[in-house]
Amino acid sequence: MNEPFLSAKPIIQKLEEQSFEAYFVGGSVRDYLLNRSIADVDIATSATPEEVKSIFPVTVDTGIEHGTVLVIYNGKGYEVTTFRTETEYIDHRRPETVKFIRSLTEDLKRRDFTMNAIAMNIHGEIIDPFHGRLALQNRMIECVGNANERFQEDALRMMRAIRFVSQLNFSLENETKIAIKANAQLLQHIAVERIFQECTKLFQGKNKNQAIQFLYECNLWNYLPELKNHQDLLPCFQKWEINHLSEKQVWLLLLFLSKTNNPTGFLKSWRMPTKKISYLSKALFFLHKRLKEEWTIYSHYQATKEISIDVESVYQMIQNQSGENIEQKISEIFLSMPIQKPEEMKVTGADLMLWFDRPGGPWIKRALEMIEKAILQKKVSNEKGAIKGWILTCNLQQEKDC
Ligand code: ATP
Ligand code: MG
């Protein structure tokens, strides 16, 4: 056993000292068995939340109604969750209330996929009543119990299945796949925010092409915001290998393929955070520009380095070009620029008002833009004195390029 399990081991030991059972469970055990890096360990225990709180001096009630207590130990937080069953599923969503139990097997039984229903004790011994290790060996995503019932209980599990396809490069076990197809319409009951989270993980995964193929095959695509109106995109994903694209680049590609003229509206219906919406709307603008013309130093500068890289990566892919070393090439272009963003200019609107002895107004913006371009074209160096000398010779009224 290695980190992060080793640091969490004393928590399980303390619970065991008090005669409770406790195990590592869920994603951390799955990823450990797959030799993947592990973000956080989850601990499941027979102790109730109150019992957990009485054992550890510092805890936080992060999700106590679901049985989860955050135990702070050695300056780090560990989620400790009481064994539980989820009985009352209403509207195909996970229940608000749960029932605490003392049986590990029952707790593992309520989990979504066999690979996520494996427990490990502090000696590294595996408890695997639903043959999750076999599923891991076969690289299969398979429901615990009856797939049809499991998706009817909680429809989000269908999206989780497909994002694991992308993240782990796994396939869908046949019965699981058939059940997703049969229940796809239940996705309507799930909050868009949660679907968005799963799609984000899907787009971050390494097997996006296969996952998107499954979204189509299983009819889930029909229930995704905005994309439901785009049944025609599948051939694109069969034609283009998108596995190397970043998550943001996939969103940019989707915006482009959807032909939307309202990217903000498109992304808002996904409940995407506003900052990301602005970023992607700007990137879409530059992608359209790129399709019409080559980059210039000024357009790279306006776009920013990050957007330039994202736009060029998507552009090269839709043009069926190799797209090699895009990041390196664009980074070099930015390194060669005298300034990379407006804040780096050594002149402000206040300087201009002083030099020209004029009150503020739209002319300031125009003048700053002229200076910006001149600096980028290396007509003038980015020094106050040089800029002053240069701008005073310009005819600002006529917006003449000096
Ligand atoms: P990730 O690596 O993305 O965190 P994960 O499998 O750990 O993947 P979590 O959302 O952290 O996913 O959930 C932890 C565990 O809780 C899962 O491994 C699974 O056992 C269980 N679980 C999570 N969501 C569900 C669900 N909708 N239905 C049943 N069990 C679930
Ligand atoms: Mg997890």
From TrEMBL:
ATP binds at G27, R30, R111, D154, R157, R160, R163. Its cofactor is Mg(2+). It comes from the Bacteria. InterPro entries: Bact_CCA-adding_enz_type3_sf (IPR050264), CCA-adding_enz_C (IPR032810), CCA-adding_enz_firmicutes (IPR023068), NT_sf (IPR043519), PolA_pol_head_dom (IPR002646), PolyA_RNA-bd (IPR032828). Its EC number is 2.7.7.72. Residues 169-229 form the tRNA nucleotidyltransferase/poly(A) polymerase RNA and SrmB- binding domain. GO terms for molecular function: CCA tRNA nucleotidyltransferase activity. CTP binds at G27, R30, R111, D154, R157, R160, R163. Keywords: ATP-binding, Magnesium, Metal-binding, Nucleotide-binding, Nucleotidyltransferase, RNA repair, RNA-binding, Transferase, tRNA processing. Homodimer. Belongs to the tRNA nucleotidyltransferase/poly(A) polymerase family. Bacterial CCA-adding enzyme type 3 subfamily. HAMAP family: CCA_bact_type3. A single active site specifically recognizes both ATP and CTP and is responsible for their addition. Catalyzes the addition and repair of the essential 3'-terminal CCA sequence in tRNAs without using a nucleic acid template. Adds these three nucleotides in the order of C, C, and A to the tRNA nucleotide-73, using CTP and ATP as substrates and producing inorganic pyrophosphate. tRNA 3'-terminal CCA addition is required both for tRNA processing and repair. Also involved in tRNA surveillance by mediating tandem CCA addition to generate a CCACCA at the 3' terminus of unstable tRNAs. While stable tRNAs receive only 3'-terminal CCA, unstable tRNAs are marked with CCACCA and rapidly degraded. This is CCA-adding enzyme. It comes from Heyndrickxia vini.
